Amino acid sequence: MPDPSPPPPRRFLPAGPLRGTIRVPGDKSISHRALMLGALAIGKTTIRGLLEGEDVLATGRALTQMGATISKGSQGEWRVHGVGVGGLMQPREALDMGNSGTSTRLLMGLVASHPITATFTGDASLSQRPMGRVIEPLSRMGAEFTASSPDVGGGTLPLTVRGLYPAVPIEYRLPVASAQVKSAVLLAGLNTPGVTTVIEPVPTRDHSERMLRGFGAELTVEEADGERIIRLTGEADLKPQDIEVPGDPSSAAFFIVAATIVPGSELTIANVGLNPTRCGLVHVLRDMGADIAETNPRVVGGEPVADLIVRHAPLKGIEVDLRVVASMIDEFPVFFVAAALAEGQTSTRHLEELRVKESDRLATMAVALAAIGARVVERQDGLVIQGSGGEPLHGGGPIATRLDHRIAMSMAVAGLVSRDGVEVDDTSPIATSFPAFEALLASVSGR
Ligand code: S3P
What is residue 332's predicted lDDT score, i.e. its pLDDT? Predict the structure, then answer.
């Protein structure tokens, strides 16, 4: 079959100020987990505010292929009829994960401790991402793997997992700060008799822990010598829940940065999840001089949430502290745009993980920012950016986004503060996490 014709590039023109009130879609990480745990509880789980992006829909389809029943109700709520822990069935066809690393790695964990075999496939971006980081602990639990390119990051998709029941509970110290690896091991532990332990030297997003407890799993978290020790007792019995998914801080990030760097902006972003393991960007921007106020703090679905009021403010360059990196890991692409408009130098380090996201985000953003007139130096583990002090960048493109939704959205934001606009080669990956992004940006920036 001939290749489908490439999507048309899209130019994001200078615009703004950003004004009004918006609501960002449901949190992607929480949405994946709500579907998965709903599929493992016996009975009906109801999910409000589920992110209906392609990544989450891929998780839903895969769970359906393994026996769960998932449907959308008339009020927009999603219903999941679960099969119970241990009840996942052998899928008849390969599980197509699209662009989604979270779907892949977490579902690999679920399959690993069920007596079933599943093949995972994905798009060109996902098929280059390292799976060795989950294959390694899940193999120790007894699952068997056949992966493509074993010399690339321990194996890539397409990949087949042969689960084992009963699997062996392990104690696993995370060699990389990864919530996906942590969650894969914990999810495998659900159907594994005994105590599965994950030790996190660097805390990562804790949505799995919160939600596992919410569904009734026996899970404890102990802090010792700066490490988090998470213990899950299997085999777990999960009770169906009514879940409300808070807004995604990683989606809000594009609007937080946009309102900060476009003069005259004042934007309210309602219902933003502010889990401390996720809101590093807000703290770092404030340290740079950003004006971000929080109102109406509350708890939604077991997660802290507030409305944010973001006003334009001049930013000063900063050295980003190693300790906040994990709590803003997905926000670096758009943070680099903010840094490109700040006064003075911003320097980031310890960001090697960005090289194995949907694209190599250090290389992709270094090339993209240089192409639109920013002064940026790429190092092995970070970028050093000399900001323009608020002067618009000249713009340009087309920018190669490499099937990476966050690169496309970040460069769209850069277009707002450019002289000639920024052309993005392909905006279609935005639908993986934030389908309404372009319409929302146009509506608040007066385009
Ligand atoms: C996620 C964890 C992070 C993050 C990803 C979502 C999750 O990945 O980048 O977008 O939902 O667990 P890593 O575990 O690779 O850091």
Answer: 99
CA of 178 to the centre of ligand 1 (A): 6
Same domain, 130 and 277: no
Verify whether ligand 1 is closer than 6 Å to residue 183 (CB atom): yes
Q: What is the pLDDT of residues 383-436, one digit of tens each?
A: 999 999 999 999 999 999 999 999 999 999 999 999 999 999 999 999 999 999
Whether 209 and 230 have beta carbons less than 8 Å apart is answered as yes
**Which atom of ligand 1 lies at the shortest distance from residue 181's CA?**
14
Out of 206, 248, 307, 330, pick the active-site residue: 330
Q: Which residues of the chain have pLDDT under 50?
A: 1-2
Residues 288 and 414 in one domain: yes
154 with 294, same domain: the answer is: no
Q: Kindly give the interhelix angle for 179-190 and 101-112, rounded to the nearest 10 degrees.
A: 30
Distance 352 CA to ligand 1 centre (A): 14
Measured from the Cα of 180, ligand 1's closest atom is: 14
- Nearest atom within ligand 1 for CA of residue 329: 9
Task: State residue 1's pLDDT score.
Answer: 47
Q: Is 275 in the pocket of ligand 1 (CB under 6 A)?
A: no
Total count of domains within the chain: 2
* 104 and 145 co-located in one domain: yes
Burial class (CB in 10 A: 0-12, 13-18, 19+), 378: middle
**Domain residues for 298?**
11-26+246-444
Is 6 a member of any domain? no
Would you say residue 3 lies in a domain?
Answer: no
Contact 437, 430 (CB under 8 A): yes
Residue 123 annotated among the catalytic residues of the structure: no
Both tokens of residue 93?
Answer: 């066809």
